[in-house]
Amino acid sequence: MFSYSRQSLGPAGTGRLFCSLASAALSLFAVPAFAAEPGGPSWNGCYIGASAGYGRAGVDATDSPFRDGPFAGSGYSWNGGGGEYETIKSHDSGLTGGVEAGCDRQIDLGGTPLVIGGVVDFSAMNLEATGTSAIVGDTHTRAGIDWAASVRARAGVGAGDVLFFVSGGVAVADVNVRAFDQEVSPTFGRMNVSGGGTETGWVAGAGAEWRVKPNLSLSLEYLHYDFGSVTATGPAIEPAGAFPRFENDVRLDTVRIGLKWRM
To answer: Which pTM was predicted?
Structure first.
């Protein structure tokens, strides 16, 4: 009833892939914790932690031409007759909270501590972005994100008790999209189509971590997630034979504060 712009692994396949990547990332950088080096702490070792922050979801939903039914290939979309197709923009923001686990390995080069590592995290949220067509006011789009997780590589430079780092990797999230038009005015057509599920994408960001005690640190981190295009499509209520299709470009930006216990 709906399709994706990329191949979907499904919840089970995505879960297996995510767990495999997480295990590989953590085992690659897992090393025993060492005592602090002269002149500064050692970042070697593993950690677990919790975070809280703020997230903002941004969605661009494009009213795309029909691909199914008798109108396929005509160039028509739900509110358009060809040429440029309308993009409905929406966003929502709110609080996030989550947990993470990771491992770091420190390499001292000429007195400069370089740190490489891997981290796995999970964040819960309740974001729902709703938009309205500027062409026909009875057409609406909606996209929701309930949680997001990632497996990331991390690299940074230590400066005393502070580690400055960048990170990037694979992201997974529960993304659900919908387009609906359930009023007969100003247009007579009616539809309510949906799509989405467990979606994969990429994530990248940067931050800083401050070692407040030998086994305790605070972090501030920004992450940008991109889940590509998630499609809402299906048969319209009326007219018969119409298959509205809305392609949603879904993004998420978060800023969060973390507390880590280093083992």
So the answer is: 0.85
Q: Which H or E element spans position 194? A: strand 191-213
pLDDT in tens, 101-159: 999 999 998 889 999 999 999 999 999 999 999 999 999 999 999 999 999 999 999 99
d(CA 92, CA 90): 7
Q: How far is Cα 35 from Cα 44, in angstroms, rounded to an integer?
A: 9
* Closest to 106 measured CA to CA, from 167, 170, 163: 163
114 within 8 A of 152, measured Cβ to Cβ: no
- Distance between first and last Cα of the chain: 48
Domains annotated for the chain, with CATH where assigned, are 10-262 (2.40.160.20)
Enumerate residues 6+ apart whose C-beta is below 8 A from 209: 156, 162, 163, 165, 217, 218, 219, 258, 260
What is d(CA 159, CA 146) in angstroms, rounded to the nearest whole number? 37
Question: Three-state DSSP class for 63?
Answer: strand
Cα 63 to Cα 77: distance, rounded to the nearest angstrom = 6
Q: What is the pLDDT of residues 9-68, one digit of tens each?
A: 455 555 554 555 445 444 444 444 333 344 567 899 999 999 999 999 999 999 999 999
DSSP 190: B
